[in-house]
Design a protein that fits this description.
enzyme activator activity; 4% helix; lipid transporter activity; signal; Putative lipocalin-8 8 lipocalin; Ganglioside M2 Activator Protein, Chain: A; 1 helix; 5-stranded antiparallel sheet; mainly beta
Length: 135
């Protein structure tokens, strides 16, 4: 499993951000889950609201909003056929988060496991900015 073409736009507190990326699945996945570890200044962030921070997502039978979005290309059913999947996900970054995130850079590690086997890993950083006010 490979993540590529990651683009994040409008990553500002108090704004709608958009994330686009491609996910290449090269072998059939039977029971995959993705574990995201989010750290700020070396400290892991807890999983908040089941969607923000260090969370694990079921890619076949997940019921949370994030799991439904991630598994939408294969209608949340497994096994997942090898294919290239593209995503465009928009979400609101609450201003309140800046009080919980010390520093503006979040380091993310996403690990995909299928039936207990690691089948992919990607690392990237997101830099959150303050929303610019118009003069």
């Amino acid at each position: 499993v490979q993540l590529s073409d990651l683009v994040i736009t409008d990553a500002c507190y108090g704004s709608n951000a958009t994330v686009t990326f491609a996910l290449k699945i090269s072998t059939e996945l039977r029971s995959p889950e993705i574990s995201v570890e989010a750290t700020v200044m070396g400290t892991p962030m807890p999983c908040t609201f089941g969607t923000v921070g260090s969370c694990t997502y079921d890619l076949c039978q997940g019921t949370s909003p994030a799991e439904k979005i991630l598994s939408k290309p294969w209608n949340s059913s497994c096994p997942i056929a090898p294919n290239n999947y593209t995503y465009e996900i928009s979400f609101f970054i609450r201003t309140l988060l800046q009080f919980f995130i010390q520093g503006d850079k979040i380091n993310l590690t996403a690990r995909v496991n299928d039936e207990g086997q690691n089948v992919g890993c990607s690392q990237f950083a997101i830099e959150l900015r303050q929303k610019k006010l118009l003069d």
